[in-house]
Amino acid sequence: MQKQPYKVWDRQTASMTQYTPKKFYKIVVEYPISNKTLEFIGMDRGSCILQAEVAKEQDDIMFMRSEEEITLLHKENINE
Q1: Which of 32, 36, 45, 58 falls between 20 and 30 A from 66, CA-CA?
Q2: Buried b vs exposed e over 57-80: b needs ≥16 C-beta within 10 Å?
Q3: Model pTM score
Q4: Which residues contact 39 (CB under 8 A, 6 or more apart)?
Q5: β-strands 36-42, 6-10: how paired?
Q6: What is the 3-state secondary structure (H, E, C) of the chain?
Q7: % of residues, the chain, pLDDT over 90
């Protein structure tokens, strides 16, 4: 189910801002040889894994620690 966008009026700047919920995917990857843990956010699982592969150093390995679907708000100014 797609959540509806909502609008907020800012009295100080006299402007309207719209927030639209968007679904994204997040993974947490551990690189044990380089001793790093990184988070990647993307439109889907495949794009997150691709980012993690690109961030991997040459002889390192990857362990996926967690994966989840998250909701972020897309902020957009509206001139009415």
Answers
A1: 58
A2: eeeeebeeeeeeeeeeeeeeeeee
A3: 0.75
A4: 26, 27, 28, 29
A5: unpaired
A6: CCCCCEEEEECCCCEEEEEEEEEEEEEEEEECCCCEEEEEEECCHHHHHHHHHHHCCCCCCCEEEEEEEEEEEEEEEECC
A7: 72
